[in-house]
Amino acid sequence: MRRLSTVDKLSKEEQKKNRYYTATQYQLMWWRFRKHKLAILGSVVLMVFFLIVVLAEFIAVAGPETRDPHYVLGPPHTVHWIDADETVKIAPYIYGSKTVRDPETLALRVAEDREVKIPVRFFVKGEPYRLMGVVPWDVHLIGIEDGLLHLFGTDDLGRDVFSRTMYATRVSLSIGLIGVLNSFLLGLLIGGASGYFGGGLDFVVQRLTEFIRSMPTLPLWMAISAAVPKEWSALKVYFAITIILSLIGWTHLARRVRGKLLSLRNEDFVVAAKLAGCSDARIITRHLLPAFLSYIIVDLSVSFPYMILGETSLSFVGLGLRPPIVSWGTLLQASQNVRTIAMHPWMFIPSLFVVSAVLAFSFVGDGARDAADPYSR
Known about the structure:
The protein is an alpha+beta fold.
């Protein structure tokens, strides 16, 4: 029996080795990636964020401009599951609200009314909306039958911070996605042409890259965004900010692509492709770029935090998106002073979404960087 167990153990080790040696490149990359626990955690967080991007209207309890005049600057509602007699409630509930006068500042504030209990429902009917701007619907993920559930409290106009954060997540992440894709294409085209053809084209591209990278980031954003006409609609400003961010963010990828092409353009497989009559465009797109595709994917994932922080910074200082567009930056404009954070700390909740998104993209980028070289130890 002991000999059989040893043989079985050896056979399992041999099967494991055979599985490793016969695996494809993408299988090896996936096995290496899933060992990175923080990268897996970041992937889960990003999946939640992109689910919010798709279903923002459904997850939000109301529209971004819907006001609750009876709950202005109200604190977040606390959802209770256990009643006062310590019996578990089958359905969650919140307490009602009432206006009281602060004994120290004599200012009116919103407080809980413990005598009123309001049940919280899932898949409740509420304010009508169009899902992704197309499908008409009126069902929300969570809410109450009469009134609004404020999970993140309200702002100085009585607008629900939770709903506005959901819509802001869609806007900020979509700007990051579109901006990164634009800068990705520019980086591949400009860097690829510079590294493959060289000569005068390479000299001009590198001087332009150095000029853009040498300029301070914030003054550059301020100068370009100042050129956006004030009379433009919110939609035009949205696309303008996206283009501005992509025009600035292509330089890093272009440098990396240029360096890789310089080291690969004289390899044997490139010479064979030239002798076979392949065009320069085919050699670059079908032979050279796939040779280091994993590194391009890593650069793509790492570029997202810079785009998100760029939009947030511009909107925060009033140079980016403007109301009625809701983004993480415009939401954080309301919490610029210490007094607001001290008296109404829930107004600072959108910053947690910014930090979570940046960390998640960074973790995924680190995991992708390790997975790009699955043979390293």
